Amino acid sequence: FFQYCLSGHPTLPCNVLKFKSTTIMLDCGLDMTSTLNFLPLPLVQSPRLSKLPGWVLKDGSTFLDKELKECSGHVFVDSVPEFCLPETELLDLSTVDVILISNYHCMMALPYITEYTGFTGTVYATEPTVQIGRLLMEELVNSIERVPKAQSASMWKNKEVQRLLPAPLKDAVEVSMWRKCYTMPEVNAALSKIQLVGYSQKIELFGAVQVTPLSSGYALGSSNWIIQSHYEKVSYVSGSSLLTTHPQPMDQASLKNSDVLILTGLTQIPTANPDGMVGEFCSNLAMTVRNGGNVLVPCYPSGVIYDLLECLYQYIDSAGLSNVPFYFISPVANSSLEFSQIFAEWLCHNKQTKVYLPEPPFPHAELIQTNKLKHYPSIHGDFSNDFKQPCVVFTGHPSLRFGDVVHFMELWGKSSLNTVIFTEPDFSYLDALAPYQPLAMKCVYCPIDTRLNFIQVSKLLKEVQPLHVVCPEQYTQPPPTQSHRTDLMIDCQPPPMSYRRAEVLTLPYKRRYEKIEIMPELADSLVPLEIKPGISLATVSAVLHTKDNKHVLQLPPKPPQPPASKKRKRVSDDVPECKPLKPLLSGSIPVDQFVQTLEKHGFSDVKVEDTAKGHIVLLQEAETLIQIEEDSTHIICDNDEPLRVKLRDLVLKFLQKF
Amino acid sequence: MPEIKVTPLGAGQDVGRSCILVSIAGKNVMLDCGMHMGYNDDRRFPDFSYITQNGRLTDFLDCVIISHFHLDHCGALPYFSEMVGYDGPIYMTHPTKAICPILLEDYRKITVDKKGETNFFTSQMIKDCMKKVIAVHLHQTVQVDEELEIKAYYAGHVLGAAMFQIKAGCESVVYTGDYNMTPDRHLGAAWIDKCRPDLLISESTYATTIRDSKRCRERDFLKKVHETVERGGKVLIPVFALGRAQELCILLETFWERMNLKAPIYFSTGLTEKANHYYKLFITWTNQKIRKTFVQRNMFEFKHIKAFDRAFADNPGPMVVFATPGMLHAGQSLQIFRKWAGNEKNMVIMPGYCVQGTVGHKILSGQRKLEMEGRQILEVKMQVEYMSFSAHADAKGIMQLIRQAEPRNVLLVHGEAKKMEFLKQKIEQEFHVNCYMPANGETTTIFTNPSIPVDISLGLLKRETAIGLLPDVKKPKLMHGTLIMKDNSFRLVSPEQALKELGLTEHQLRFTCRVHIQDPRKEHETVLRVYNHLKGVLKDYSVQHLPDGSITVESILIQATAHSEDQGTKVLLVSWTYQDEELGSYLTSLLKKGLPQSTS
C-alpha cells in the first residue's frame, strides 16, 4: 500500500494510491500560482503594458529582454501564462486505473493527465463537479485564447539562467513542469472519460476495491472518498466544510473506523473567520458605492459567488443599494447561474425545501428577474452599451493575470474612489496586484475560505478516530509567517505522517483476511463440531475458484466411477492422485480406555509398558507396538494393511480432526 | 432454507392501488402505497389490516418505498401513515418528494370538496406524512438499518420515477415501479446494471403489446389533432398534470410552431405552470438533449400553450385542451368531456391507460351511452381515440430489462391477469427462470440459496493461489482449511492456525511398517535398488537418496536393515504420518511385491 505524492500544494492535491491491485489517483489539482510570474493579458491594447522595458542583467547583457519585462519594480515573464503540473515522472501514469475527483477546483489538471500520459482508465466525479468544472475550464481556456500572444518564453527557464534572475522568479520551483493551457477539444476529451456518481454510491473497482463519494460540504457536489476493501478502509478527505453555506452538509459519520485518513484541502486562511469576512465584504462594498466609486470583485464563476450574491440580496435594500447595478462578467456567467438552480439534490436542506415549493433555490434568480444583477459573456458586446457607473463587477480571473478583470484593473486602478475586494483565497493579493502598482484604487482583502480550520480538524479527528493520519507537510508545522502559532497545525496521536511533492509513502497497515464465498452445496456438506462452548469448527476441503478478484469455494467434483467391466488395475498403475488432504489431529489418548477398546475389538494379548513420556502398548501376537505420548502416537507393525487400518481407526476415535 | 415472501395488497393481477409487501432476510418492506381509481369505497386503498390487526404498523414494517408520484402508487400514503399509523421511514426520490404532496392535495380536494366525503385525510395529514419521507439520490446506497439497504435506479416513467433494489444479507429484490425502456421527448430510458437479484418484481401494464415506433404514434397523434382543429372541432386530451402532459405539450408546441397554427391550446389546471417549474428545477432528471440545451432554451417554457379558464369550454371555434385527470374519472377533464361529448366534430384522445370503472375505460371499451350521476344518460357522439403514450415498457422492454438485470426469479404485478399469463410463459421460456403472478392477498414464496461469505486468512489463500499458479481445469486443486464459527463470525484458516488459535497442540499420528524383501546383496546395494525402482515408478514425486542411507519419497522415510536371522532378507522400515497415509500405504504395497528382477 503506497501513496505517490504528485503535488506539494496542500489545497490542490494530486496523490496516487496503490491499494490492493488497483492504482487510484486522488484528485488532480493544477497549481496556478505560477501565473503570478507572468504579465497580465490585457483585453484592450494597453499602452502601459505594451511599452514596458525589457529586463537587463547586471552585467548589461540583454539576451532576455524579449522574454522578461520590468513592471512596477518587478520582473515578469512576457509570455502566455503557464501552470505548474503535478509530477508526471514519479510513476507511469498510464497505469492509473481510476481518478477520483473531490471537487471542481481539484480537477483542473485533468486534461494534462488524461490526454498526455496514456491514461486509459475511468474518472469518477459527481454531476455538479463535472458541470461546474467544465465551466471553470471553459472560462480558463477562453480567457487565455482570446488574447493571442505571439511568443512563449522558455529561455529564462534554463537552470543556469534562472539562477541569475531576481526573486521571485529565481526561486520559482519546478519551472520545467510548467505548461501552457490546454484547449477545448482536450477539455472535452478529458471530460468524456468521467463517469457520474452520486453521494453514497458504492462503486466496485475490479471486484477488489469499493470506492464511495461522500458529501464534503464545501461546494456543489464536492465529495470526500472512502476507498475500502472488506478489511481495510482509507478515507480521503479533501476540501471539506462544516459551515452552513449552500452545499449539502458534510457526511462525517461515514469516515469512522478508517485505517488511514488522508487529509488535504484545509482552509488557506486559518486565522480568518468566513462570516466576519462576508460582513466586511458587504460594508466595504456599500461604502465605496455610496461614495460614488466602483467595486471590482475578482472571482471564480462558481462557488463563493453564490453566497456573496445571496448576502447582497438580503443586504442591498437595507443598505440603500437598490439602484446600483451588479454585473457578473464571464463567458460562463449565464451557465453558472442557471446550473446552480438545477442541483437541488446537492444543496443544503433549506435550499432543497425551496425547490419543493417549487422555487429556485438561489435568490440570484430574483436579482436577475428584477434586473439588479446582469450577466454578460464579456466586456465586449451588450455590456458596453448597458455599462453604468458606479457599479459592482464580479469577474475573473482571481490571479488578475487574464480574463475581463485585467480590463477593470486598468480602467479603475487610477481612482481612489474605486475598490477591489479580494474574496478568493488561492492567490496572495499583493502578488496579484504587483504588475498594477502604483494603484490609487483601494484594496480590501476579505478572503473567504470555508474549508476546515485546525480546531475543526482536531474535533473531526477525535470524532472519527482514524488509526493513522496522512497529510501534506505544511499541516504538520505552524505557517512560516506565524511560527509561534502552534495551534495552526494538526495535532493528533499518533502524529500524522506527512508528505511532500515527489515523495512515496508506505501506508501503515497490513491485511490479514480476504472475503471468500462458500457455495450452498458445500456449506450443506460441512459438519460443524463444537470444540469449546460457542466455538464450532468444520474442516473444509474444497475447490477454490478465483475470478475478477472474487474467491469462491465449491464442492470438489465426485471422482469418476471406474467402469465395472474392466479388470481391476494393478496397484502399481494406480499411483495415488491428488486426494483430499488428511486433516490435522489434536487431543490425547487415554491409555486405559484405549486398551479396553483394543480388547473389545479382539486383541487379547495387550501389554502396557510405562515409558518416560508415556506408554508403549504391545500386541505380542501381531508383533505390533504402539507408542502413545501426550502429543503423538506411533504405530509400528508388520506390513499388514488391514491390521494397520484397524488400529488407525481405533486411534482416531480418540482424536479430533482439524 | 432462506426465502423471500411477496404479497401484493394491490396491483396483484390488476392495475391500480399498487402496494406490495416483501419479506427478505427477516426484513419487511412495503413497496408503494397507492389508491385505486376504479373504486370509491374501501377498496380504493390497500387493506393494511393484512399487515397487522391491532399492532402498530411501525413494528411490522422496516421501511416503505414509493417508486413515483402517480396516485396509484402513492395515493394511500397519508391514510396509511396518519390514519392507520406508521412512523417508520418512507423513501422516495427528490422529485417524487416534491411533487407527491401536490397531487395528494389535489386528490384530497376532489374527494372532500367536490364529492363531499368526510372521513378522508386532511391537508395537515399530508404535511405530517411528508415529514416522514427521506429523499434518496439515484444510485445512492441508503442504509435503512445495519442489514437492510436500498438503491434507486432511473425508471424514466415520469419525472423522478425510480426502480429500487432492496438488499438484505446476500439476498436482493428489485422492484421496477412503472418504467419505460425507450427515451421520449422529455425523459430518458430506464436503466439498471447486471445486479442479478434473487427476484425482480416488474410492472406488466403492456405485457402483450409491442408498440410500433414512437415516431409513428406521434405522427398519428398530430394528424388527428390537426384534422379535428381544421374542421373546427375541439380536442380534449385528458392527462395527469405531470408526465405525459409535458411530453405532449412539447410535441404540440413544436408542431404549432412549424405549421404556424393559430387555434388555441390550453392547459387546464393551475398546476401547469407549477408543474413546468418542477421540470425546470429537476432538469437533471430529464433526457440528455433537454439537459444539454437548457441554458440556451428551456423546453418547458411554452409559447403557444396558455392557461385554461372554465368559461373557455363554451367558446366557439376549434381549440385543444389538456385537462386533468387522465382517466376521466372526476374533475375538470370530466366536466369538459360532458360538455363536448354530444358533438361529432369533437374528439377526445386518451393518451394513456385507464383502469376499470373509470369513464375513460368505459368509452375506450366502446360504450357510447354512459350513466352519469343522478341517472342522467350521456350520449357520446364525439370521436374517441386511444393512443398509448403512457410511458410503460412494452413486452419487448420488459424482456430487455430482465436481460439487463439477470434475476433468478421474476414476479409480475401491475397488469391484467390474462396478459400476465402470456408474458409469464414467454419469460419462463426465454430466460429459464420461474415467473410468478400472485393475486392480491396471495403470498408467493421464493427459496433462495445464498452462498455464505466467510473471512479467509490471507496466508491460507496465498498458499492456495501460489500452488494453483497454473490452474488445471481437469484436476482442480483442493484446498484444505478449518472453518471457525464463533458468534456469527465465520473464518476460514489453515488447520495449523486453527489449532494455534484454540490453544491446542497437534497430535502426531505416525505409522511405521516393516516390509521384508528377499535380497542377498549388501544393505546399501539393496537401498540403491529400492531407490532406482521407486524413482522409476513415481515419476511425479520427489524421491531422494540421503547421505545417511535412507530414502525419502516426499515426506515418507524408508530405511533398510538386515534381518536379524536371515541374511538374505532385508527389512525395509517405511515410516509416514497420518497426513501422508495414501502415499505411505501405497509404498508399502508397492515394495511388498518385491523388486523387479533386472536392475542394472
Automatic annotation (TrEMBL), chain A:
It is found in: Cytoplasm; Nucleus. Residues 305-433 form the Beta-Casp domain. Keywords: Cytoplasm, Nucleus. GO terms for cellular component: cytosol; INTAC complex; integrator complex. Residues 549-573 are annotated as: Disordered. InterPro entries: Beta_Casp, Integrator_9su, IntS9-like_C, Metallo-B-lactamas, RibonucZ/Hydroxyglut_hydro. Signal peptide: none annotated. It holds the Pfam family Beta-Casp. SMART domains: Beta-Casp. The keyword Nucleus applies. CDD domains: Int9-like_MBL-fold. GO terms for biological process: negative regulation of transmembrane receptor protein serine/threonine kinase signaling pathway; regulation of cellular response to growth factor stimulus; RNA polymerase II transcription initiation surveillance; snRNA 3'-end processing. Belongs to the metallo-beta-lactamase superfamily. RNA-metabolizing metallo-beta-lactamase-like family. INTS9 subfamily. This is Integrator complex subunit 9. The lineage of its organism: Eukaryota, Metazoa, Chordata, Craniata, Vertebrata. The gene is Ints9.
TrEMBL record, chain B:
Residues 245-363 form the Beta-Casp domain. One of its GO terms (biological process) is snRNA processing. Residues 16-233 form the Metallo-beta-lactamase domain. Keywords: Cytoplasm, Hydrolase, Metal-binding, Nucleus, Zinc. SUPFAM superfamilies: Metallo-hydrolase/oxidoreductase. One of its GO terms (cellular component) is nucleus. The keyword Oxidoreductase does not apply. Belongs to the metallo-beta-lactamase superfamily. RNA-metabolizing metallo-beta-lactamase-like family. INTS11 subfamily. This is Integrator complex subunit 11. It comes from Sula dactylatra.
